[in-house]
Amino acid sequence: MEPLYVPINIDVAIRYHRFFDVRFFIKKRMGDMISIHQKAIFLEKTFKSYKAKGLREIWLLNEDYHRIVGELRHSLETKKDFRAAFHDINSIYSLSRNILLEHGFNKKVLEESRSLNIIAIKHILEVPDLASLMVNFKKENDAFFFRYIMQSYIINSMIKTFPWYSEQLMIKMGEACMLCDITLSESDFDHMERFPMDKWTKKQLHHPIEVAEMLRKYGKDISPDVIKVIEQHHEKPDGTGYPSGLTHSHFTLLSSIFQISAEVARKLENVDARTFDMDFLVQEIYQNNQKGVCRNASMALFSSLGLQL
C-alpha cells in the first residue's frame, strides 16, 4: 500500500520547525519523494533555504502530520495571547483544509477540525469588538480563516440577543462556519466569484449538500441543527439561492442567523472598519429579510450592533 503524504506550506514549516523532528519529504518534478531527516535545531535554516530556492511545500507522512498537529493544538490550549493564538489556529486550519482537499473527507481530520474550533471560539469570545477584529487580524490571516473568525464573531453577537444563548450553541455554530465550505478550493471560490451560477461545476453548486452528507457519515455526534445550517447556508429568503432554491418558510432561525452573518462578513472583507457605514449595510440586509424567521434574525443583527430601525 502506498504511503499517504500530507503537504505542509513552507511558511508553516518555518514557523513551527521545532515540532518537525521527524522524517519529511520533498517532491521531485517527476513525483518521486526524497526522504530527509534532520535534528530540529537545524530545520529553521534548512526550511528558509528551501523557501529562498522557490520551494512552496514539504511533505509529511500522514501519521507524523497528525502527531505534529496534535502537539500544536495542545500548545494552543495554554496560550493566553489571542493574537498569537490566532496565528497558530490559522495555520492548523489551513493544514486541515489542505489535507481534506488533497485526500478527501475522513473522520480523523473532522475530529481535529472540531476540536480546533472549540479552541478558536474561546479566543473569538475574547475579542472586544468587530472593529478590533477587522483592524488587527484582517491582514494577518488568510482569507478562509479570516472569514471564519469574522462570521463566528458576528453570529455570537447575534445569538447573544436571545435568552437561549449558550457557549455550547456558539461552539456548534462555529463548527458550521468552519466546515460549511470545507470542500471548496481557492480556485473554486475564484470561479464562483467570476462566473454566474449556471457556469458553476456540480461540486461547486452542491457543496452544501455534499458537506452535510459527509458530516452525517463521519460526525455521528454532530448536531442536526449544525447540519441543517450547512445545508441551507447559501439559500436566500426569496428563493434565488442554492442548491435547492428554498424560500424563507423553509429556514430555521439558526439558518437565517447564519445566512445574514455570512452576508455581513462578506461585505466587510474588503472595507475599512473605521470608515464603513454599518448602518447602511444592516438597513439593506433588513430590507431583504423581512419575512418569517429572517425578520427575527435581522432584528438580532440590529440589536447586536446597538442600531435602531
Helix and strand arrangement:
Elements: E1 5-9, H1 10-15, E2 24-27, E3 33-36, H2 40-52, E4 57-61, H3 62-76, H4 82-103, H5 107-124, H6 130-137, H7 143-159, H8 167-179, H9 186-194, H10 202-205, H11 207-218, H12 224-231, H13 253-268, H14 278-287, H15 292-305
Helix pairs in contact: 3-4, 4-5, 5-8, 6-7, 7-8, 7-13, 7-15, 8-12, 11-12, 12-13, 13-15
Overall pLDDT metric: 85
CATH superfamily of the largest domain: Hypothetical protein af1432
Given as residue ranges, the uncertain stretches (5+ residues, pLDDT < 50) are none
The coarse overall form would be globular
Percentage of residues in helical conformation? 55-70%
Return the domain count: 2
Strand content: 5-15%
CATH topology type of the largest domain: Hypothetical protein af1432
Task: Quote the distance from N terminus to C terminus.
Answer: 63 Å
In the CATH hierarchy, the architecture of the largest domain is Orthogonal Bundle
Rg from C-alpha positions?
Answer: 20 Å
Helix/strand class? mainly alpha
Can you summarize the main beta sheet? 4 strands, antiparallel
Written as H for each helix and E for each strand, in order along the chain, the element string is EHEEHEHHHHHHHHHHHHH
Lateral arrangement of strands in the main beta sheet:
1-4-2-3
* CATH class identity of the largest domain: Mainly Alpha
Number of helices: 15
Short account of what is shown:
This protein is mostly helical. It is built from 15 helices and 4 strands. The longest helix is centred in the N-terminal third of the chain and has 22 residues, at 82-103.
